[in-house]
Write a structure and sequence with these properties.
- By secondary structure, the protein is α+β, with helices and mostly antiparallel strands.
- The protein is 27% helix and 26% strand.
- The chain has 32 helices and 67 strands.
- The strands form 18 sheets. Strands 6-7-8-9-13 form a five-stranded mixed beta sheet, with no helix packed on it.
- Strand 51 and strand 52 form a beta hairpin.
Amino acid sequence: LIPKTLIFAHPSPVTALAIANNDKWEKANIISSAEDGEICLWDSDDGTCIQYQSQLRGSHTEIQSFQMTSGLKRLWRVIVYGHYGDIFILDAVTLELVYKLQSKISPDWVSALCVTKSIHNEGNSIIALCANRMMKIWHLSDEPQDILFETEAKTLPNEDANCVRFNQFTNRAMLFVYANCWQIYDLDSYRLLYEMAAKDDDPWIGGDFVDVNDVSIWSQSGAAYIFRLPKKCLPDADSIQNVSSEEKAITLHTLSGCSSDNISNKPVLNFSYGSRGSFHKLIVQGNAGGEVRIWKLNSFSDAKNYVPDHDITPITCTSLSDPWKNPETKPKGILDDLAIFDDDDKEECNPSVSSTLFIADRGILICGCDNGDIYVADACVITLMQFLNYKQSPATKPVIHRMKRHNRRVTCLLHPYSDVPSYDPKLLVSGSSDFTVNLWNIETGTWLYTFAVHGGGITKLFCCPQSGTSRLANCICAISRDHAVSILSLTERKCILLAGRHTFPVNSIRWRLNEDFFIVSCTDGTVYVWQIETGCLDRCISGNVAAEILQVSDEITFVGIDATNNMITPIQLTGAVPSQPANTLITPSPSTLSLHDTSMTGSENISHAGYPLRITAVRANLYDSDIQILLFDTESLISHLLHYDKISSDELENCQDEDGIIFNTSSESAKKPATLQRQSQITYDAAQLELSCLHAWDLDPKLDEICIERLGLLHPSRPITFGILSKRRSLSLIVPGWEPCSSQMNTNVTEDDKNDIMLGQESFVTYSHWMLSSSLTTQHMLAIISVSNTLMEMNHTSFISEFEDDIDCSESNEEAEDREMKEVTRVSQIKAGWSQIATLHCVLLPDKLGKHNFKAPLLQVLARRWQHKCLEIREAAQALLLAELNRIGRDGRQQIMEVWAPHVPRNFDIVQNSQLTPTDGVAGTPMIMVDSPSTPQLSNPQASPTPTSNSRKAFLIQRSNHFRKMKSVPSGMANKPDRSMSLAVTSGNNLLQSTSSENLDRRTSFGGIECGITTTKSLQRSIAAYEFRRRQITAIVMMGVIGAEFSNELDVRAIRRNDQEKDKAVTVENDAVMYTGKALQFLILQQNSMQFPGNSTVRRTAIDLIGRGFALWQPYLDVASVLLVLLDLSCESASKTSPSNPSVTSLDTSRTAKHALSLIATSKPALLITTLSVQIGRNGPLLISLMQSSPPGSQPPPSATILFQSRAVIVHIMELLVDKAPQEVVDLLVEVVNIILHCSDQIQLKSRNLPDSFPSLFKFSMVSFCSKSKRVAVGGQKGQVVVFDTKSIRSHVLQAHTSAITTLAFSADGRLIAIFSLSDARLSFWQIGSSTNIFGMIGNFTPKCVKVCKVNTSRVQDSQAVVQKLVRIVWLNHKELVLLTNGLEQRFSI
């Protein structure tokens, strides 16, 4: 029994735990409840928070899970009850409320409860014992009901019950455990069968059935006994009537080793019964000291064969504190092995850290110690020394200052500037157990002032609100163990107010600045109101009035139980890092931890990015040491690296630091006071630390050598503990010393085998790192691939300083060229090293580790990051997802499709003003909605729509009518049950970038668009709706990626199956392709609005996937509408975005749309050209009018405006097609030239000839331009020649031949045009006259053929590719020309 995960789950004490399901023990989830009413569902594999429920108010005291049947399905439910009269039954997967049990007869708190299953029917019943001695029974039905009342009620003679259990072996008897006795009841008649009293000094607290007629009962002292029940308790009805009532229970066993310590909290025991080999009957005991014991129970035979009170020894016993006490697994302290010497006796000391504070913008860690000393240390240097094989240079100082003033334990630290920028950034405040508060200058390490106003140790320091009265400006607030609160002025160096009449610990402090009051709430519910100006107590209130005063207070600056109580410190990050879900990399304990945080930032701009590295401290108990956790923000790290890479080395050198760190505070506008070089050094140190901890060492010795000698990475010096930061900022840590292989050992392994299996320090870095969790594997691989790719593209590519470089900079001038070659070689080797690291972790890692040593990354997480706003993370996610899809093979991809295809939406009818739930405040995401009048409709009156193109808005409104008709049902689907899901839209863009629904913590209300809603009643719960919505989007992306990259596996048009069953499977796959394509189209064609902005991540993902798999989706798309929207998005600019968000998201969407258009053009060039040609034909005159700045008489249609705005994009696509798909362009050359002329800049065409603007177009011999008349002639595939006037964009068609035109050319004066057709073997001369005549402006002159000549084509093969290169017409003068056919010159004249 080895502790695996330490979860900082709730900010208030945990009151109950339960296993959510028992289907797969190894992957069973855990449910926990807290004193504040919060319920959470946890993944037992890695400790992540899967789901949480905070709507059930009240203190829950017990959680039980059970399985019930609904039709042919078996569903897991969770029962929750506590200090309230109701009983809640939740879904074990979504924590959705399914039943609410209430009482009509004498409602009261439930003290004990169990789920029973009668032998006469298959339904479940709940039997509960209330505090008023009432036993109540509820019968559960298959269909969920909002409220369910009891069916039976009975009064019991005994007092409050501690436990009720059902005999799952016989389905007949029940066990009631009271403090003074335990009783056996018959389930059918509820008749008392047997009763046994407890000892006077040791009351019973619980029990359970361990066999058909055996029970285990445990007492408050921790003692547990196994009793054999009398025969009258057996399920046989006849035996119940015939047995003697004098028969008593026999004590079979006593569980030895039970905890009997005199502790305030009683031990907890539980009986576990499951099919796990020989360990299927276990009794588990845990106590408040963290000790866990397990007893194994064998099947008991006749009681006569047992020695009375025979002891059973536990098979294992462990303590949760063992890993921190074991010298082999105990992590080092943050200041261990730093060679700190005492100033008095010059002896080395090893201080014990009692409190820590990390200042992110300076990169320093401040440590307060038990002896009163305070150390200011370089955070990056300390972590590098503690984690890695770091060689400290003489110029590097891990400890910058040592400040001595306190003579006792330092309990709290505060840097006011980090919380409120109006404070002086040089000031640091410390509180101690010596009753004093000291003020320091952290730049010089000098003491400034001591506040000695408290009569107890200081427990908390925080800043006062800076809005309102100027009296609180630059003041802090301090709380001490004597329950006093003081307001201290940092500028005046005096105590402004001392509130010291509180009789209980302080619970919270609230402010009413407009009335000059601050309010102190104590743990006993009493509220003290103090006047700030006079410092006098205004009044002391308790009861309901006190609660009302707390509710109307203006501002809260401190909430939480006083530090004298045991309390988990929640993870609260301050500064620029948003509250987003993150996965972590960690190393615990009284030491530093390394944690990986992928928090999202709002912009690629460095001013909006968070800090790449943060260190936070958590504590599970008041007297425990802090656990320092390192949080890496990969997106911010990449932003900082790219930012500082653009800064020249000269600019960095002008910001030299003295003694490693000097802080610049002269800039009033700069929020970060550290110098530029210091900030860049923090960034590079954070990147070095993150990559060194995450890299898979020892798999490739050559690559490891490159990493150390060339790249500057450092090998870990000890195993690193990882963890995950998930929903609600809940933190789970892998306990130090736990390794996957160690938990998988069995008793049959020999000692030699154990030595081989046990992972040491080196193998932990290599193997165990990737065996912990799929979530960790995903985040770590994304981080190392994205950061490695970033460093590969940078100028400063290595962490080795140039002084350590092997290039001698003092070489003579004669060797300058050799030195330059060495530098080029060194840079290329470094870039190749970063590329090898990315390749190792993206492609080679699974094969090198083996399937048993590698937890595969989560495909759904990678899919949600397919269009991450950070380009480097986006590219890493895409490469990793494609590599994993290739690795799992066709069968694995088929399984993925079977899992996600049912979640793809089916209907796409647009209904305006959809009704959203409060939990739908996740931005920019399609979502499943519930068509229920009971769902409240919410709106956000303060929000304003995103500015968008009027043309696109009008066009999309026009297209909405089309979607109302999209209800086609494929063959084979008409008789299927209606399982259609819908697609709706909310605002923002974070769903595809998060690993969880952390954004639900910050709920906002939005309107939206609802589509084809058909769903079950259970989806009307907000949490379930969010999860379904999230799965729906993930399914669209997953199916889109597989369809785009592995289209041959989904394109059923190329598959022929004869077997009928296989044909059905193909139909299902085809349905998935159709619905995926329609869903992608739906996301693209949605109207830009506040609910769904044009640059949202979801829309960008749909754009990219439609471009990648256009050939597969094309039969199910409205191609013209998709192309027009893509054209409009591709010409977006930053000026169209909101002024408050001038970010690059709009430009990113534009780049994605352009890339999608390029992919569509290369995959289906003929379709693209034809569609654009049709649109140009419909809107040609309007385009010409818009280009000539002569507005038409009426408002032009939206499509014309879009085509006009995206002319440059269209021309670029045509140029791309000419280069990439010349054969397809030849077939539609007339349409291509028509598109180019209508989309070209008319001013440019007038000043420059067409061959100068588009030289690639004239590589085709069937295109000719006359510079004199500004006309261009194009030969078609049906023998027609179209002559365009570039001035007026008019055209005239000549039917010159009956087959495809091979080549043509204008004469010098432009009056004649020679046209040759290889298939006809004829050369024709046409007189076209002046431009005014041909286009009908003057006279009625018609072009005419003046001569036709036969041509010898024996030397030319009938191949268009050959003809384009070998056949040309060259005019010698205005009467003669030469036809070149594969080297043969033939002269013709007119």
